[in-house]
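Memo to structure team: turn this sequence into structure tokens by end of day. - J.P.
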Amino acid sequence: MKQSIVILTGGGPAPGMNTVVGSITKTFISKGYRVLGLHGGYKGIFSKNPDYTELDFLLADSIFNRGGSYLIMSRYKPSTKDFEDNFNLNFFVENNIKLLVTIGGDDTASTANRVAKFLQEHNHKISNIHVPKTIDNDLPLPLQRPTFGYESAKSEGARLATTVYEDARTSNNWFVVCAMGRSAGHLAFGIGAAAHYPMIVIPEMFNKTPITLDKIIKLAVSSIVKRLILGIKYGSVMISEGVFHELSSDELKKSGVTFSYDDHGHPELGKVSKAHIFSEMVEKRLRELGLDTKTRPVELGYELRCQYPSAYDLVYCTELGIGVNQLFNEGKTGCMVYIDHLGKVKPLYLKDIQDPVTGKIPPRGVSLESDRVQAIINNIMHYITENDYEAAKAFLPAPEEYDFKKILNW
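Reply from structure team:
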């Protein structure tokens, strides 16, 4: 029987998913393999009747530059009981599958290793290679290489954030914008920097003080007042949703939000409008201070995940897809495909980036020490400093409480 490979996608979508799938398909069918695309993520492997499509060149060619994911995605995480009772071993045997390709985050990669181990224990040897993706850019790839989808999401986010900023300038209002990023502020900071937002709030900025709602509000007000001193009545505040992820239980209660959680134990932040919550809190503080500045909320999240990939990700994801074939031919397994800064394809093993105690992959945060980040903080963002105290007294009873660096304990 002809040898096959199977591809599945897990987690949430990112621009470039179809580029990876299309590139893998084109490469492997040219080598004589069947390529099966599994729908529903890992659900298909634990189903009696897996929903899959045999991918050919024409299908791959029609989807490789599209947004979204042709293969239906899922956050399904199989339990130990699922492995014992529901694993569809026949699917792998009857289709002579030699390689499992998974596209997703660290949870998807970890489960791939469990699947490969289970198959080996049942005398069906299979390789597994993972393609890391997330628009959050928080997987710790070496040399700060981005995760695929990030550059496309940032580009679209910057386009939308720029139109929001233009609305603020046109109407002399302020907008509070929240961008996706579960545990790192790469997307929010990248979008905010590209659109020249006068205030950007990301979890990494609270490296010397706990995150509280009051501090977030004060950072927003600091920017608004600084611009009033400069005679500017408009602007936008960019806040990473990751600050919500880092709030304590008491602080979350203060927000009035009750979160639901996904199968991996992560709060489902996408179900809640963080921008609305922060906008209401900021406007309430402004009224208490006697300032008539109005704020409007804008959420940037799902709008960024399924857009068409940018040229950067079209090339990057094509390289990743071809790289899967290269690593497979080299006999590599249980690894992620990685393209270094010189364009070399290399395997990256989970054990090399996992915490040795917890087994979790620590998220890669924004490096506050980098010149790139400091340039934005020190030259583009607007906020109260000690030099502004006298002028700020016209708007604030205690300007020092809204001093950017004092709020963050920098």
